TrEMBL record, chain B:
Part of the ABC transporter complex LsrABCD involved in autoinducer 2 (AI-2) import. Probably responsible for the translocation of the substrate across the membrane. It is a multi-pass membrane protein. The complex is composed of two ATP-binding proteins (LsrA), two transmembrane proteins (LsrC and LsrD) and a solute-binding protein (LsrB). Keywords: Cell inner membrane, Cell membrane, Membrane, Transmembrane, Transmembrane helix, Transport. Pfam families: BPD_transp_2. This is Autoinducer 2 import system permease protein LsrD. InterPro entries: ABC_transp_permease. It is found in: Cell membrane.
UniProtKB/TrEMBL annotation, chain C:
It comes from Mesorhizobium retamae. Residues 5-240, 239-495 form the ABC transporter domain. Keywords: ATP-binding, Cell membrane, Membrane, Nucleotide-binding, Repeat, Sugar transport, Translocase, Transport. Belongs to the ABC transporter superfamily. GO terms for molecular function: ATP binding. The keyword Repeat applies. Gene3D superfamilies: P-loop containing nucleotide triphosphate hydrolases. Transmembrane segments: none annotated. This is Sugar ABC transporter ATP-binding protein.
Automatic annotation (TrEMBL), chain D:
The chain crosses the membrane at residues 12-35, 47-66, 72-90, 97-120, 126-148, 169-191, 222-245, 275-297. It comes from Mesorhizobium retamae. This is ABC transporter permease. Coiled coil: none annotated. It holds the Pfam family BPD_transp_2. It is found in: Cell membrane.
């Protein structure tokens, strides 16, 4: 795969500034661009069963997302007989078997798939498409057969938002430390390549690019090592915000001023940002897309037109001016603020918040 | 050596564990399917789906059984599976003409890894846990570092292994069946098998009996690596292209050890066999499928699996009079 | 006649030990050549060099006149040398037939011929008079039967040279006699046999020539007729051993210390006996007679399922060795390596193991009674020979290891000691020392139960002998009983007239 | 047999001690060469602070290794501790101490389960603790809902974060370093100041012999697992303090702890090792991580190098002990 695709970079840059269509204030129901697909042939009356093959819940992002999905399903109790969720525990092989079992089980009227790996799940999804409507979200598959593929703007967009913010706050020749989760995952690789392009263009030096495995202790140690090396770090760029506060603590513990930082939309980062008055940005890969999956599935079974073959969701970023709106003291530290879940049943307890 | 058994008993006591375990697993699956109304899971297609869940873990575990029988252990299989899957897709690049070269190169890699593992353990005298943990780390590191250049996808024709079939039975299941039978045959009926049990059961005794124990240990490691390779190739076919994490995410190292021990092969070596291991794999597959039907929460599933691993081993371990550590 | 085997100038050093020093040894076709020597004299090392397990530092080996160099036991086997090693080397989870054919399976193009192996195994077992099912699992056999499997294994090869390193250590009288007959037959077939044993009567009965090793050096080789037992012992030990067994006690035994009533479990039935203060009670029996199980029951290792045990008049329940230890019963297991020693710990730590195990958890490991100088004193008193009591006990000879374990129990100040095969594989001087210790332990008002398959030993050291047969005590014999008397009871012939007892 | 003085076991222990220490000194010297400021007391203290969790885990793991087992569940326990602390304390500084007490109770419970299963159900510890690893991890995640919840107040965080400045001689003194010193002293006392250490070594060496000599084998084993769990709780508290809540706080630490003990010269499967094996082994391993960080090698290759060093360290000690024999 090519993680540095100028065309895709350009397209996503445009999408970031595009005005979304759809209901105002409900970004999970909005879409960018005009493509729609017809789904009349999938129309089904009466109560329906939706099946969801989940790649897993191996990180807080997916935990919040799954809660969104379940809560959204609750909104449609009258139409939805049952939501069957099957978890693949991060194993491609298991997810393929799971999908096969769901399809052959014959209970499902529509299938939602959040693939663990793009290429791996392609054949299984293709096979499923022949039997029932399939909706894919988050990571995609290498086939056009699903009714629609739901995703926010994408990795380049994430990298562009964060990279441009940092570049705008730094002088030419300043140092930025890039903290990444792990190599080899397309949505993460594209975030970095986009940001790197922008830094290179702006003459900002990437002093290091390190993988943290989203481990807070490791993150803090890595940053401390960079500080101990005596290198001046003006900004920290991250491809995901789970460990943003750990990185900031390294500066605290060393008695240094905070760097410019790009995190994500997690509560702990937003709170720190607010209380310490950081120069920061919180780009997002919004978890509300998990709601969209249910909405899309039901729309398809209603025979309504849905955005497709790609349903591109807006991908907002949290900035200084809107920060206060997203800080919610009730929510747990790693809650993703752009969950679009504030109005959903069970908020905030379902997401681990305090009443 | 134990002196606990009362009377000189019959030799074949390995069979009951595997049959009992297989029976329990199937029973669980059937009961759950009936209870949740998923009757279609009991159809031919459902059963094939259940068995298909065994293939990847089954292949590694057969190899793991060989090393555990010989008194060693292999923690590097997970990394090797990833390496093979990545390498196979890289070499093929979708080109059917490259299928054979890719397979050969991958098996060559496995051979090399098996030889290194075996040499470290048998000739270097390094504790197998540490030796294979080390080689696993090395493979994993090289793989992750070079993944940027090692991309690709297997040929469509190669995917037939995972998606094609004969009379409704997937080739991959046939492959597992054939390799299991072959492994069982080797262990039970051949010189090599007898030597494995001898070396695992009493390495000093085996040496004194004239067996070149180092070679046997080394060969067992090669077998384990080759089976890991088979598993990696199967996964490549099933997943179209390998990622450096599939082995690790599949936890094939620890799970293959767990199912082997659940199947009645003892960690000290010298006792056990492939049938038990496959029954252990079947147990895991039934749990996967059953938990899906029951809609067990992902985290609770982990809790249950942990408890079941302990319980499944305790069932037959509790009778041992010897001390275990 | 050229020697079938001739080893010359063999030397071998281990770290800290010169195990063999320029040893010459030869064996003629159809000859039984015995090697005698104290524990650690180098007997097994010499044979392991012959068998290709060790490589000599110096020296040459010739087989029928040709020089050979072995680097692996396989080569020795191929050269027609078969060794019954001192340590059992079987596969517990495999069948007898599979064990006999270990490393030498009958196979065609890699495929085993199991039926042929079973047949041949049955044949071999028959030849040595062992009634063992070739399909039985080795772990289900008694140690004695396992030893017979080892012997069958050695015969498989049709070797020209057979080395037997203490083959009878685990065998009872009957098993030993069968073996000696077998040796005679082999000799007649022209096989050369190297025979190592600490049992003098056996050596005198079958050896053609005898070689004595001491401290890794050869003392002499002589024909048996020119080597009376006294000479042999002097050469081995370096001094005369006149009063080998200690003198019987002068005063009669005191009050009952230990009494067992109706002791029954899977292996023994209705055993009843008492041990009085000052008494050494011997327990005899053939293999599988239940004598080992009786000892295990007394120390709570395999408890009685019914029946009572009273200690000094008080009933006690013994369900684990720790309870027995706490109640004052100590145990010297029969299988030193597997059941007695923590091989990688120091001599001192092994001797202190029980004391430390019974002390409070927070006791200091080097304090008070555990202090090095205290335990060193006791070890020295027992004449445990080691360069340093801090060295690993695994590096000591068997006799010294055994003495260290005895010190473990002497330090614990138990009332009753249960000794199983206390001198198995132990040289004559160490034996005498152990007997001496046993006697003085009993004389101090305590009691000993000694379980042994070595009849002369029981006759020499025990004040009374209980004989077991099929899990029951078939009779009791006072001091002065003969081997014939014991055999009579051991074979279960108590109700029949006293006749021929040779099995 | 002419007896030449043998190296005494005390001297042998000295050699083991030096092995871990030597590796550590070499690695740290390499760090200092590249980054001279690591020789300043402040940075050394910081190094110790960061190594603290691993060091403490290694001390606990050593207890289990001495008795012949493994504890794979410690990482999961550390994770549980971090998540549980955050949920239970939920930002209320007054609750901290009571919750820490609760955490230890939870840890001890896990240790007891491990020990009881191994001692009485006779399930090999590698399987038992694999089971409890899954179980504890699942419980922790199920409880927290799969993501961090609650909050850790400063007084809890300080356990891993607080650094006193202006301390005479050393300049700065992290609280974590005081915790290490205390924990290592306790662990040392357990093995050398009480009879427990000798019992553990005997049990690891030959459990059957120990049992017949009156050693409470089961209790000795169970205690080892409890100590190991207590160390995991302590490490978890330091981890949570150092870097805050996360769901993967303890991931992979169990294997690092085992590797540390082995690098320091402890023998897997029991019977040999001292607390210094754990201490210097852990410091060596951590120094290695730091060195690789400083060298700025690609992350992936660091895994490979770690694997190589692991094999090399164990291989070297094998080679040394062979040469001695
Ligand atoms: N592998 C070894 N490593 C170190 N020392 C050894 C080794 N094998 C034997 N020794 C030492 O060599 C010497 C000779 O041992 P050997 O086993 O040959 O004695 P032996 O005459 O067979 O004694 P026994 O009658 O007890 O069997 C002893 O001091 C023994 O401790
Ligand atoms: N737990 C048990 N259940 C059933 N049978 C047993 C049990 N323990 C021992 N036996 C049997 O009881 C008999 C007595 O065994 P034991 O070990 O006491 O014999 P032994 O006289 O000590 O023989 P040896 O001298 O060969 O050790 C044997 O046949 C043995 O197999
Ligand atoms: Mg010997
Ligand atoms: Mg016995």
């Amino acid at each position: 795969q090519d993680f540095n695709d100028p065309a895709e970079f350009k397209k996503q840059r445009e999408q970031l500034s595009m005005k979304p269509q759809g209901p105002e204030g409900q970004p999970w129901a909005q879409h960018l661009g005009d493509g729609m697909v017809d789904t009349a042939k999938y129309k089904k009356d009466g109560q329906v069963t939706i099946c969801f093959s989940n790649a897993g819940v191996f990180n807080p992002w997916r935990v919040v997302g799954l809660n969104n999905l379940n809560a959204e399903a609750e909104l449609h109790k009258d139409r939805l007989k049952e939501l069957i969720v099957v978890d693949a525990e991060g194993k491609d092989d298991k997810q393929i078997s799971d999908i096969e079992a769901l399809v052959s089980g014959g209970k499902c009227d529509a299938l939602i798939v959040s693939p663990n790996t793009t290429a791996a799940l392609t054949p299984a999804v293709e096979a499923a498409c022949g039997k029932l409507p399939v909706i894919v979200f988050d990571r995609g598959v290498n086939t056009q057969c699903p009714v629609t593929y739901i995703h926010p703007v994408g990795g380049y967009g994430f990298g562009i938002t964060s990279g441009e913010f940092i570049a705008s706050k730094l002088q030419k020749g300043a140092n930025v430390l890039a903290l990444r989760i792990m190599p080899g995952v397309d949505v993460l690789e594209t975030r970095y390549s986009a940001a790197k392009n922008i830094f290179d263009e702006a003459g900002i030096k990437v002093v290091g690019s390190e993988f943290t495995g989203s481990d807070r202790a490791k993150t803090k140690s890595i940053v401390e090592d960079y500080i101990n090396r005596g290198e001046k770090i003006d900004a920290v760029w991250m491809d995901a915000g789970d460990t943003a506060t750990a990185a900031l603590e390294a500066f605290e513990d060393a008695g240094l001023p905070y760097p410019v930082i790009s995190g994500e939309d997690q509560q702990d980062f937003l709170r720190k940002w607010q209380s310490e008055k950081l120069t920061a940005i919180g780009p997002s890969y919004p978890t509300y897309q998990w709601r969209t999956a249910i909405i899309a599935a039901l729309d398809v079974l209603d025979g309504k037109q849905v955005p497709g073959p790609e349903w591109v969701l807006p991908q907002p970023a949290i900035t200084e001016d809107v920060l206060a709106k997203y800080v919610d003291e009730r929510m747990p530290p790693l809650h993703y603020s752009l969950c679009g879940c504030q109005e959903l049943p069970g908020y905030p307890e379902r997401w681990g918040g305090k009443k | 050596m134990t002196t606990d058994a009362a009377k000189p008993g019959p030799a074949r006591s390995g069979l009951p564990i595997s049959i009992l375990l297989a029976g329990l697993s199937i029973g669980f699956f059937v009961v759950v399917a009936l209870a949740t109304g998923e009757v279609s899971q009991l159809s031919g297609q459902g059963i094939v789906g259940l068995l298909q869940r065994m293939v990847a873990l089954g292949l590694v575990s057969i190899g793991q059984t060989f090393v555990i029988l010989v008194g060693s252990i292999d923690l590097s299989v997970a990394a090797l599976i990833s390496a093979v899957a990545v390498l196979a897709s890289h070499i093929m690049q979708g080109d059917p003409a490259m299928i054979l070269p890719a397979i050969l190169i991958c098996l060559g890699l496995c051979l090399a890894v098996g030889l290194v593992n075996g040499a470290l353990v048998a000739y270097g005298g390094i504790n197998p846990l540490i030796a294979t943990l080390g080689t696993g780390l090395i493979i994993q590191g090289v793989l992750a570092a070079s993944f940027g250049v090692l991309q690709g996808a297997v040929a469509r024709e190669f995917q037939v292994i995972a998606y094609g079939g004969l009379l409704g039975v997937p080739y991959s299941l046939l492959l597992l069946a054939v390799l299991s039978l072959a492994a069982g045959f080797v262990l039970d009926r051949t010189l090599f098998g007898a030597r494995i049990y001898a070396v695992g059961g009493n390495p000093d005794g085996a040496r004194l009996a004239g067996i070149r124990t180092e070679r046997v240990t080394l060969s067992a490691h090669v077998v384990a690596s080759l089976f890991a390779g088979a598993s990696g190739l199967y996964l490549a076919a099933r997943l179209q292209s390998g990622t450096p994490w599939i082995g690790r995410d599949g936890i094939y190292d620890l799970e293959s050890i767990a199912v082997t021990v659940i199947g009645g092969t003892i960690l000290a070596g010298g006792k056990g066999g492939v049938a038990g291991t496959l029954a252990g794999v079947l147990l895991f597959a039934s749990l996967d499928a059953g938990f899906n039907m029951l809609g067990v929460d992902a985290f609770l599933k982990q809790v249950l699996r942990g408890a079941i691993v302990i319980a499944a081993v305790a069932v037959h371990a509790i009778r041992t009079k010897e001390h275990v550590a | 006649m050229t020697a079938a085997l001739s080893m010359s100038g063999i030397s071998k050093a281990f770290p800290g030990v010169r195990a063999l020093d320029n040893v010459d040894f030869d064996c003629l076709p159809g000859e039984v050549h015995a090697i005698c020597g104290e524990n650690g004299a180098g007997k097994s090392t010499l044979m392991k060099i012959l068998g290709g397990s060790y490589r000599p530092d110096a020296g040459t080996i010739q087989l029928a006149g040709t020089t050979v160099h072995f680097t692996h036991p396989r080569q020795a086997a191929e050269a027609g040398i078969s060794i019954i090693h001192q340590e059992l080397s079987l596969l517990p989870h495999r069948t007898v037939a599979e064990n006999i054919f270990m490393g030498r399976e009958i196979a065609r193009r890699g495929l085993l011929d199991k039926a042929a192996m079973r047949r041949k195994a049955a044949q071999l077992l028959g030849r040595i008079g062992a009634e063992i099912d070739p399909q039985a699992l080795v772990s289900s056999l008694s140690i004695a039967m396992q030893q017979l499997v080892e012997i069958a294994k050695a015969l498989l090869l049709d070797a020209r040279i057979i080395v037997m390193d203490e083959p009878t250590a685990a065998l009872d009288e009957r098993g030993s006699r069968t073996l000696l007959t077998l040796v005679q037959n082999l000799r007649r077939e022209g096989v050369s046999i190297v025979y190592i044993s600490h049992r003098m009567p056996e050596v005198m009965a079958i050896a053609d020539r005898i070689t004595i090793l001491k401290d890794g050096k050869k003392v002499w080789t002589r024909p048996r007729d020119a080597a009376p037992v006294g000479e042999i012992v002097r050469a081995m030990v370096g001094r005369d051993l006149d009063d080998f067994y200690p003198a019987p006690p002068s005063s009669p035994p005191g009050a009952a210390l230990l009494a067992v009533q109706d002791g029954t479990n899977a292996a023994v039935q209705d055993v009843a006996f008492t041990v009085r203060a000052g008494e050494i009670v011997g327990v005899a029996g053939l293999e599988d007679s239940g004598k080992g199980a009786l000892a295990q029951a007394l120390v709570g290792d395999a408890p009685f399922s019914s029946g009572t045990i009273t200690l000094r008049g008080k009933p006690v329940t013994l369900r684990a060795p720790r309870q027995a230890t706490a109640a004052g019963i100590g145990y010297l297991p029969g299988d030193r390596k597997r059941e007695g020693l923590a091989l990688h710990q120091s001599v001192r730590d092994n001797a202190l193991l029980t004391l430390r195990s019974m002390a409070g958890l927070l006791a200091r490991p080097q304090g008070g009674a555990f202090a090095s100088n205290v335990i060193d004193g006791k070890l020295r008193e027992m004449d445990v020979r080691a360069a340093d009591f801090g060295q690993e006990i695994g590096t000591l000879s068997g006799g010294n290891q055994q003495k260290a374990i005895i010190v473990r129990w002497l330090a614990q100040a138990s009332d009753i000691l249960v000794f199983v095969e206390p001198t198995r594989g132990i040289d004559i001087a160490a034996k005498a020392a152990i007997y001496e210790t046993m006697r003085s332990f009993a004389d101090s008002g305590r009691g000993i139960v000694v379980v042994s398959s070595d009849m002369p030993e029981l006759i020499g050291v025990a004040d009374r002998i209980l004989v077991m047969h099929r899990g029951r005590i078939s009779g009791e014999l006072p001091r002065g009983a003969s081997e014939e008397d014991i055999m009579h009871l051991a074979l279960g012939l108590a109700d029949q007239p006293h006749r021929e007892v040779h099995a | 047999m002419t007896t030449v003085p043998l190296p005494s076991s005390r001297r042998a222990a000295g050699i083991a001690l030096n092995a871990g220490l030597v590796i550590f000194v070499v690695l740290y010297a390499a760090i200092a060469l590249l980054q001279p400021n690591y020789l300043e007391p402040g940075l050394f203290m910081n190094f110790l602070r960061r190594a603290a969790p691993l060091l403490i885990l290694a001390c606990g793991q050593l207890y289990v290794i001495l008795t012949g087992g493994f504890d794979l569940s410690m990482g999961a326990v550390a994770t549980l501790v971090v998540l549980a602390a955050s949920i239970l304390i939920n930002g209320d500084p007054d609750a901290t101490w009571a919750v820490i007490g609760t955490l230890y109770v939870m840890g001890i419970a896990v240790g007891l389960v491990n020990g009881l299963v191994v001692a009485f159900l006779k399930v090999p510890s590698i399987i038992t603790t694999l089971g409890t690893m899954l179980l504890v991890n699942g419980l922790a995640l199920a409880w927290s809902g799969g993501a961090a919840r609650g909050d850790l107040p400063d007084n809890f965080r300080n356990l891993g974060r607080l650094v006193w400045r202006g301390v005479p001689v050393i300049g700065t003194l992290p609280l974590a370093v005081v915790v290490i010193a205390g924990f290592v002293a306790l662990a040392w006392w357990g093995l050398n100041g009480t009879v427990y250490g000798k019992r553990a070594l005997a049990v690891g060496d030959n459990p059957r012999a120990a049992e017949l000599a009156g050693t409470p084998v089961a209790v000795t084993r169970i205690l080892a697992f409890v100590v190991s769990a207590v160390s995991a709780v302590t490490a978890g508290i330091l981890l949570g303090g150092f870097s805050g809540v996360s769901v993967n706080a303890g991931e992979g630490l169990e294997l690092q702890a085992i590797a540390a003990c082995v690098i320091g010269g402890a023998q897997l499967l029991g019977g040999r090792g001292s607390i210094w094996s754990a201490v210097f082994g852990a410091l060596s391993l951590f120094a290695l991580f730091t060195l690789l960080n400083i060298l700025g090698l690609p992350q992936a290759l660091r895994d490979s190098i770690q694997g190589l060093i692991l094999i090399a360290a164990v291989g070297a000690s094998m080679w040394r002990s062979r040469k001695r024999n």
